[in-house]
Amino acid sequence: MLCGLQASVCAQGTLCVSELLFQPRSGEAEYLELYNAGSAAVELSDLVIVRWVGDTLGARYALPQYTVAPHDYVVLTKDAASVAANFRVKFASKMLECSLPTYPNDGGSVVLALADGVVVEKFDYAPSMHGRLLRNKAGVALERRRFDVDCNAEGNWFSASSTSGYGTPTCENSQSQEWLVEETAFGFSSSLVSPDGDGYQDELVIDYQLENNDVYGQIAIYDARGNRVCRLLNDGLLGTHGEIVWDGTGDGGERLTSGRYVIYIDLYDLHGSKQVVKRTISVVY
After folding, report:
1. 263 DSSP β-pair partners
2. Virtual torsion, Cα 162, 163, 168, 171, nearest 10 deg
3. By percentage, how much of the chain surpasses pLDDT 70?
4. pLDDT (tens digit, 9 = 90+) per residue, 75-110?
5. What domains, with CATH codes, occur in the chain?
């Protein structure tokens, strides 16, 4: 049984679970990110990570001495060099090596407690929290969106965005509540288009599934010099689902030269929220 009460939201001066890489790629290291959502500094060594066994608390893992400033992050891992080699670590000094439980790929719990065993927060994670269009979950961290609601609130966790490198250890999460959509709400049929009429990848299909039906967008394709070569959508209302097809040609129907192009999806709503999703696509013949 849990010893003490689990905090439903992050109290002042209390650390919160912020990000978790529980399924690293082969040979790479897991990491756990904590965030101080309060206005008072927290001494990390006053807390422990606890192994969750069945429905009880197991072994405790002491944390190193480190002061976590208000509204700041700290990352715990068994191998800081591995994390730094595979993610864009902005603040290396916030990476701390220590012993941690192993977090199973098929789901489990992260338990953060005080040294006396009183549980501060328990995060129950599962692979299903990742984006439904994410084909390969290895090397993709789960990020928390809000710290002012229960850690396990529905929809409070999601895959780190591809543009962030699928993880943001030591800095602000890429998936915050301000985002209009999840980046993985947009699926691309391929990373290339071959518009030569041979029946093989002649078109690129962009399909999407959105939670909100009031999102508008502009979708355009730019060449390597930043010139717009094709506009696929101009201030259109996307709706909750649909697909957009590009045949690999420019606005005038001309065949584009082989090379790399960038698809920009500029999203906005009538409340002033904005977001950009982008993807690199190759045109080949």
Report:
1. 221, 279
2. -160
3. 91
4. 999 999 999 999 999 999 999 999 999 999 999 999
5. 15-164 (2.60.40.1260), 183-283 (2.60.40.2550)
